[in-house]
Each structure stands twice: as structure tokens, then as C-alpha cells.
Amino acid sequence: MISNYKNSNEIKTVGVIGAGTMGTGIAQVVSQAGLSVILFDLNSHLLKGAKSQVSLTMEKLISKGKVSAVKAQGTCQRITYVTNIEAMAAADLVVEAIVEQLDIKQQVFQQLESICSPQALLVSNTSAISITAIGSAMRDPRRLAGLHFFNPAPVMKLVEVVKGLATDANVVVTLLSLAKSWGKVAVAAKSSPGFIVNRIARPFYAEGLRLVEEGVAEPARIDALMREAGGFRMGPFELMDLIGHDVNYSVTKSVFEANY
Prior knowledge:
Layout: E1 13-17, H1 21-32, E2 36-40, H2 44-63, H3 69-77, E3 79-82, E4 93-96, H4 102-115, E5 121-124, H5 131-135, E6 144-149, E7 158-163, H6 169-181, E8 185-190, H7 197-213, H8 219-228, H9 236-243, H10 245-259
Parallel strand pairs: 1-2, 1-4, 2-3, 4-5, 5-6, 7-8
Antiparallel strand pairs: 6-7
């Protein structure tokens, strides 16, 4: 089946919208895989912080013997930091990694449609918002999909590739192939509330909070039990601290509203 959109071999430059924790991590992942990256944010201070974070991370990897100085330097040099979204015109694939708010995401993708090539792929790193809902505001939602990384993106292997109702099947195939080439374990998911992981994770966090609310155990004790007896790398409260309570709340709210 012939697709009008870029395939994995044609994607050489990746744009990332948002220089927060996830956007910065995704930019590093893509650059480490050898692709050029354009990282955009309106906030120049966030961009400065992102640049410092990537540099610091690469220095740590050098000290641990996980990458050579040459490769680390290449990773840093392949990322361009911009405050002008028009720079996304050069991207073959754009990853949106901004606030979990449907209307803002819709506005960003409408803007990207007017900037990017009609063949470029547009994807969202949303944790739980419906890809179909995001795409409903686009002229061509066939090139939109979810590409959900987990925090921290350079460390966590799993990536969910999420197909909306209008998403072209070839776009999903391309994203699965790309994620694999970036060293990730990619799984296809439908655009259902919370996708796969965040749907399963809601009771994990909720029951932890309930145990504290009922006075059964303190957060640190619950985390320790989940690590030592449950085999989890992190307990629910450690994970909530890592993710951010604002982000975790937004995801929980999104999943709840989609179901009830």
C-alpha cells in the first residue's frame, strides 16, 4: 500500500515541541540515534536548561564508560535549540511534548499543519488524551499518531505507538520501526483512555493513596514493600514524585473523564 507520508528511511530531522523534562529527554534519545533534532520552546530559559541537561547527561555517560567523548559531542551538536516554531518546516517528524491540555495541543497541531511539509508525520507524546480528539481539529489527521515515551525517556525502553481512528496504518508501521531503531521497545496501542500503561497504573497510584488515607502505612513503607516484595523498581509514591503530581493528576483526570 502506497503512503503519502514519510517512511522511516526518509526521516532525517525530528522536531520536538516543548523543552520540559520529556521534550528534552526525547530530543536526547533521537539525537543519540544519529538524527538531527530541532527543539522548540517559547521559553528561552527552558531551552538553556535543556541544553545544559543534555550536556550533563552525556558527561555522566562518558564517566561511566557508556559512550565515547566523540559520540557524546555528536549528540550535543545534533540538537538545535529554537524559539521560533517556523523552524519546524525542516522537520520530517514532529513530536509534541507540552502540557496535557486538549485545546492547547489542538492549537499546536493546527499551527504545525500550516508550517510542516504535507508528508511530515506529526505525533503527540500525550500520556492519556485521545489521539482521535486531538486530530479532530486537524485538516489531515491521517498523519497524526501518539508516540508516548516514559520518564526518563533516555532510560525507559517502552514506547507506546497510538493509532487514532483516522491514523494512516503506514504511519503506525513507520513509528514502530523508528522507535525500534532508537533502541526502544515499541508497542502498538489503540486510542483508548490511558492507552495501555497509564490505564493499568491508575489503580497502582490510587490504592497507594488509599492506604495512606486510611492510615494503613506511610508512603515510604509502601514504596519499600512494593520494591522488596513486589519486585517493582519504584513504589507508587516514588513514581508520582518522579512524574510530578501535576502531570499524574492530569492523566488521572483525563482517564476518569473519558470513562465516566
